[in-house]
Specification:
The protein is built from 14 helices and eleven strands. By secondary structure, the chain is of the alpha/beta class. Helix 11 runs antiparallel to helix 12, helix 11 packs across helix 14 and helix 12 crosses helix 14.
Length: about 400
């Protein structure tokens, strides 16, 4: 019996990597549903190549263009996640939609799936309490796909908070790790979009360049795993080959090493760690022959002041929703050259100091409507600050 697969965000980097893993063994898998936003050419290519039963296209203009172009009957094309028949169930859903737009689809497909693999950190940051509730009710297994969180999961299975002394989430330091402090004043969007190790989208690459991605990952880890947030720390590891390090109270230290290729955590999550990965990729680095790659350093907080936000109590309860929304607006404004690279941190500080911040951040378990209200306030406040 083939396993039924859904991929949310199939034209993004996670979606494309997931399809690359799955297409190597279509005897075991059946691609039932794909979804995307507006990449017209790649959507058409995926429809013709994979022939999914359903394809959901979020962007209205792209949806109507595809409907007009595509005359085949083997794929039903929708522009709404909730039009998929409720009787359809999946063995595995991979959620790789970028931004808070992925929250409701992730919740919906958690109801429909035996296993859901999450690469949408915004869903976890903004609505983990909702996803967890739905997953428990539907007995859905939930696994993280980000390389850092997948590593923490692998390293800490069957361990409790009292067993853990320290958890390091590693960061490459991005393209500006070795640049002098005065260089940061004139960083362009194009420079910030070029990650030295990973092939990623523009937004996540920019988040990586100022270590915002690591701030979000610490918050994500706190929600996903039952460990004290004070036990987490960011550690610079320029080669990105070690993704997490765990110090245990029993005196042991463990880390997880793998190539900078997202197909590795994706394939291991899909196959429950029972896969010969050499059929997919060639290892570039032999661990024992490249020990010089295993270098670490502390974060320079003058270069990457965003990490200091974790020292405040901003992100308890719904503060993380505000952080996520404000950052999305700021990154988009930086891409459009409306603000400077350094302004991202300065604007975030102003949002957190606003007199209405605590009124919205105090919500402990907001429902979907409340999450969107908090998100909307944060976006509007951020735009007000940008336009001052």
């Amino acid at each position: 019996m083939k396993k039924k697969i859904a991929i949310l965000g199939s034209t993004g980097s996670i979606g494309v990597s997931s399809l690359n893993v799955i297409e190597k063994n279509l005897k075991k898998f059946q691609i039932i549903l794909l979804s995307a936003n507006s990449n017209y050419n790649l959507i058409l290519k995926q429809i013709y190549k994979y022939k999914p039963k359903y394809f959901i296209i979020n962007d209205s203009n792209t949806y109507f263009k595809i409907i007009k172009k595509f005359k085949k009957k083997y794929t039903k094309i929708y522009n709404n996640y909730f039009k998929v028949p409720s009787k359809i169930k999946f063995d595995i859903t991979i959620s790789g939609i970028v931004g808070i737009a992925g929250l409701e689809p992730t919740i919906e497909f958690t109801k429909k799936s035996k296993k859901i693999l999450l690469a949408n950190k915004e869903s976890i940051i903004c609505g983990w309490h909702l996803i967890k509730k739905v997953s428990l009710k539907n007995k859905t297994e939930v696994l993280p796909l980000d390389s850092e969180h997948f590593s923490i999961y692998q390293l800490t299975k069957n361990f409790k908070n009292e067993d853990i002394n320290k958890i390091y989430i590693t960061a490459s330091g991005g393209p500006f790790l070795n640049k002098p402090l005065n260089f940061f004043k004139n960083i362009s969007p194009n420079q910030a979009s070029k990650h030295p190790n990973w092939k990623m989208g523009k937004k996540i690459s920019i988040d990586s360049s100022n270590l915002m991605n690591k701030v979000l990952e610490i918050i994500e880890a706190q929600k996903f795993f039952p460990f004290d947030i004070k036990k987490y720390e960011i550690l610079i590891h320029p080669k990105s080959l070690i993704h997490a390090i765990v110090f245990f109270n029993n005196g042991q230290t463990k880390f997880l090493y793998h190539e900078t290729d997202m197909r590795i955590p994706i394939a291991n999550a899909i196959y429950d760690n029972k896969i010969n990965i050499n059929r997919l990729i060639k290892n570039k680095n032999n661990f024992l022959n490249n020990l010089d790659h295993l270098k670490f350093e502390k974060v320079n907080k003058k270069k990457f002041p965003i990490v200091t936000l974790l020292e405040k109590n901003y992100f308890n309860n719904s503060g993380s929703i505000i952080l996520n929304a404000s950052n999305e607006v700021l990154v988009e404004s930086f891409i459009k050259k409306k603000i400077t690279f350094n302004s991202i941190y300065q604007c975030l500080k102003e949002v957190f100091k606003d007199r209405d911040f605590r009124k919205y951040a105090i919500k402990k378990t907001p429902d979907i409507e409340e999450i969107y209200r908090i998100d909307e306030w944060a976006r509007n406040k951020t735009l007000d600050i940008i336009n001052k």
